[in-house]
Amino acid sequence: MSMTRKAVLTISANPFITRLVSKYGMKLGASRFVAGENMGDTLLKVKELNNEGLLVTLDLLGESVHTREEALVATDGAIRSFDAIQQQGVNSNVSVKLTQLGLDIDPYFCLDNMDRIVAKAKETGNFVRIDMEDSPRIDATMDIFSTLLEKYGRDHIGLVIQSYLYRSDKDVEQLGTHNVNLRIVKGAYKEPKEVAYPEKKDVDEAYRRLVASHLRNGCYTAIATHDIAIIQWAKTFVKENNISTDLFEFQMLYGIATSLQLDLAREGYKVRVYTPYGKDWYPYFSRRIAERPANALFILKSLFRK
Questions:
Q1: Element holding 158 (H helix, E strand)
Q2: What is the cofactor note (predicted)?
Q3: Closest CA to 17 of 34, 4, 30
Q4: Is 188 known as a binding-site position?
Q5: Taking the mean position of all CA atoms in its chain, how far away is CA 159?
Q6: More confident residue, 136 or 304
């Protein structure tokens, strides 16, 4: 982690900064990265994205929970989002993290919560994707996913795979035998060199390898990256291998590389925007600032104008 990023995360943890940004942040700049604090405001943003030709996946923000009550609140929130999507007629699916649904409390409790969410996805003709978290939680995540995949089938549930992990080649190969819908990401957690590639070039090479393998197997692949070089590689790869645009999509974060998202959509590619929302937006927002500290200047200027 760079010194600049460490400094930003340290400052963001300051109680005064937390109170200040939590009070004014959505008006002064956090809305660049977070679609809204409530479902009504968020769906207005989803409609705007849809009107621009972009697809969406909604992510109800919230860090790892510590009680069953918190996990049930998060579960109910995900379930309600499917009803809201259906009622408003927008084009969006849903992404969830298992730690928010009680994975660290009790995996069986988490499975029950996730089962309710997938059941709602099936009921509404929609789709939910389980985000992958840090390496100690991968096996439990894979177990829950496999159980639900067998029960509900691949049309309503998908998974994320991180290219910086050594194990991902075997995971993609195994998941490919079940024609699983996968989102491929590079990975953002701090992992030891015993389990993850420490060098970016190796992570990038693994990323291309995983995408190519899954597409060659005829499996739907979400290419989740803002890396221009990898996007250009993917465009060349699918063209040279006669891979239909119905078999893949590009995915990017809400508020990041917006012009690139629109350009790809205009070129005829499917582009899905990972769109966070909810009242617990501050930790997510802090990480976006840490990734690109220049964003902090925009917030500070807004505060002083206030």
A1: strand 157-162
A2: Binds 1 FAD per subunit.
A3: 30
A4: yes
A5: 10
A6: 136
pLDDT tens per residue, range 242-267: 999 999 999 999 988 999 999 999 99
pLDDT of residue 223: 98
- Main-chain dihedrals φ then ψ at residue 137, nearest 5 degrees: -100, 0
Q: Cα 109–111–114 angle (5° rounding)? A: 115
Any residues with CB less than 8 A from the CB of 300 and at least 6 apart, and which? none
Nearest to 114 by CA among 126, 101, 100: 101
Residue 178 annotated as part of some ligand binding site: no
53 is in an annotated binding site: no
Residue 228 confidence (pLDDT) above 70: yes
In the chain, beta strands by DSSP E = 55-60, 92-97, 128-131, 157-162, 182-185, 221-224, 248-253, 271-277
Domain ranges of the chain: 1-34+290-306, 35-280
- Whose tokens are 């999509």? That residue is 249
Instruction: Provide the 3-class DSSP secondary structure of residue 118.
Output: helix
Question: What are the angstrom distances between the C-alpha of 126 and each of 55, 118, 121, 143, 235?
Answer: 13, 9, 5, 22, 27
Q: Is residue 277 classed as helix, strand or coil in its secondary structure? A: strand
Q: So what's the architecture of 35-280 in CATH?
A: Alpha-Beta Barrel (3.20)
- Across 160-164, 247-251, 293-297, least confident range: 293-297
Amino acid at 96: V
Question: 275 labelled as ligand-binding?
Answer: no
Cβ neighbours of residue 279 closer than 8 Å, sequence gap 6 or more: 37, 38, 61
Q: Does the annotation mark 183 as catalytic? A: yes
Q: Any known ligand binding at 287?
A: yes
Express each pLDDT in 59-79 by its tens digit: 998 867 899 999 999 999 999
The number of residues making up the chain comes to: 306
225 labeled part of a ligand binding site: yes
Q: 129, 137, 183, 272: which is the annotated catalytic residue? A: 183
From 21-25, 29-33, 83-87, the region with the lowest mean pLDDT: 21-25
